[in-house]
Amino acid sequence: MSATPSAPAPLRLDPPYLLFLGDVDEAGFAKTAFGLRDWAGDRCTGEYSLPGATVTTGLPMMTPAEAVKVGARSLVIGVANPGGIIPPHWIDALAEALEAGLDIASGMHVRLADDPRLSELAQRHGRRLVDIRTPPPGIPVANGRKRSGKRLLTVGTDCALGKKYTALAIARALAGRGIAADFRATGQTGIMVAGSGIPIDSVVADFIAGAAELLSPDAPQDHWDVIEGQGSLFHPSYSGVSLGLLHGSQPDVIVLCHQPGRTHTLGHAGYRLPSIEEVVEMALKLGARTNPAIRCAGVALNTSALTEDTATVLMGAERDRLGLPVADPIRGGPEFDALIDECLRE
């Protein structure tokens, strides 16, 4: 018999980080950089981008050599583009980082070590190439067995609109109430923030649900695993990842994430977003396959583009319309307290 796979080992990255933005011109594709800025800001020293980039985290702009002078030890690729590719015209900048004395960490699907130039430079300068999207070995096929403990999964109307932020905020809020809770990372940014996790979208399809089971094992009955969602059940590219994660997580509770004003799928202008109600209905129907007691605790809105007054009015209107708590987890406040209360309702 093969050994039972163990929980993912902690990831070791050497901070502080210089965040590399490439030549990104769409904020949604720089979610790794924004996630690290917002949830690991004490480990970020600046940003570095190429001509043509129109996205900024607001951190000081600096070259790799300048970053090393102020203590940076790693360059982190802060981009999560379609396909997880490293364009050829980025290689000079990444080589510059290695030559300046920085390790490179990447959450892309393409492996850093597969580039001969980067591999040779890393070896010559004694630097590390860290590929975050490397699943642990021995992931089992899901067995569907009901596990002890409580689980919450964030689901969304689209990708890159707040599922990670919502999960992190909920895990922090639960801990603030004295409740045992762990954030379970399933994407490259979450793994960098948490220090461990499984990159679900890099797992072979047959093993996605098994990876989710491995990520949230049996736990005490009062312990919560707050699992970072991925993609969307309605996404033309990533729905398979979302479904496997839903089945394997066996969530007792889902929180639906949405960005007001977004009308079409990110990167797929021909596909209109489903409504909040459609996604909740689909998630509950499909999730009931492995947990018949699944329920939706409420809605998390990403209102970062709205004024506080506009956001408050919108959240109130959506709460009345949906009959569920509606909050922006980053704004917090009584709306978010009500959402946490509903998550904990027996």
UniProtKB/TrEMBL annotation:
Ranges for domain D-glutamate N-acetyltransferase-like N-terminal: 56-135
Which stretches make up the D-glutamate N-acetyltransferase-like C-terminal domain? 141-335
The family database entries (PANTHER family) matched by this protein are listed as: DUF1611 DOMAIN-CONTAINING PROTEIN (PTHR40690:SF1), GLL3100 PROTEIN (PTHR40690)
- Can you say what this protein is called? DUF1611 domain-containing protein
Name the species this protein comes from.
Stakelama flava
> What taxonomic ancestry is recorded?
Bacteria, Pseudomonadati, Pseudomonadota, Alphaproteobacteria, Sphingomonadales
